[in-house]
From TrEMBL:
Pfam families: SPP1_portal (PF05133). The lineage of its organism: Bacteria, Bacillati, Bacillota, Clostridia, Eubacteriales. This is Bacteriophage portal protein, SPP1 Gp6-like. It comes from Clostridium cellulovorans (strain ATCC 35296 / DSM 3052 / OCM 3 / 743B). InterPro entries: Portal_protein_SPP1_Gp6-like.
Amino acid sequence: MENTIEIPFKREFLDNCLADFKTKKDLYDKMYDYAIVGESDARKEYKNNPNRANLKVKTNFIKKFIKEERDYLLSNKITYISRTDNKEELNFIEFKTLHWSENHDKNLLRDLLTYGQTFELYYTKKQNNEMLFNSIIVSPREGYVYRDDFGNITLFMRFFKRKFDTTKQYIDLYTKNFIFHCDENFTQIDVPTPNTFGEVPVSVAEVSRYKELDTLYNELKDLQDAYETNLSDLVNEISDYRLAYFIAAGCTMDEKIIADMKSKGIINVSDKDIVMKFLTKDINDTFVQNTLNTLKKNIYELSSHIDTNEKLQSNTSGSALRNRLIGLEQRVRDSEGALKDLIQNRLYFMFLLFNKLNESNYDYRDVTQKFTLNIPQDDLIVAQVLSQLGIGENVSLQTGLAQLSFVSNPNKEIELIKAEKEANAPKIDLDGIGLDGGAKP
């Protein structure tokens, strides 16, 4: 390939990054099995017993809890708020992301909760003479970030396989000025693409500084395996219970008598010393059930989740339900912080691009995000508190409306209130008023 721009990193450095990526990938693949596929080591490594029942039960709490946390945080749409009340800026953000998938942030959060970190990669695409700002989610199984000593991202590596060529792995290297397209040996296979942003166009979300160590997988894997193993053992024990054996003591029966007995269900014997009965076994279901209950209780306690199938009192208030969810809410708030950081960086790249193209002056620091958790909230109590504080006097109308669960966008709600007041205001006919203030004759 002629006139190829050289990669601004030494081969030894790239090999070290690749080796570090491969070292962690095995762990991320295991996390993917539990949280996305729903497959556990307990099911994969369940010991088969020849000639006996070998059913393997799937009861994946990790996958269930991740989906619950995602829905608690993002079932209600994220609201953008301008600190300077710049409505043009907010409309611009909404317009430039209209072509994005409605589930983009949900998928992003699911990867974040699965691996403890995830990446959002940005790129541009021209369509109908319009520059589009796009992004793709790259999990730690597919991407690698290198930071310098000051925490700045200087290189992002994206690993992928092409649809009809799955035997080869390709690597895109994102640097400040160019995107280099390489094979698995870091040999360039195409002309580098200029980087429109002038910076490595990637945002990183981390649930905490401990990343994969602070995940549901790390906390629950052993309990998950123990629960599925014990449950599978119990199911197989019950299945094997069907294998009842018939004991005939003090006599010998040929095959014809045995077949006749199976057909008719009866057998006559004349000798009183002959004993005929079924051999059965007793299952200590109390011990097994206590073990399963203990494991399940530990799973819910460590994850701060609650069993929604548990029967509650009919008069349970919204505040009581909220108190039961306080542990889960605190956990979800940590994820909210990580997602906020990433979205703030997303806006940075969006404004960086379009401020150059449109000569605008939008500032990502002016925009904040509001997340409305999808959990029970007692709006009656909130309304009473706001009324006592004096909404519109001691508390701004925008702040007050933001506290109500059914108001997702306080700014638009205020606009609707103003529009309704103007529409319902009495109309004054100025043409019908005389100079002295009385009606015209």
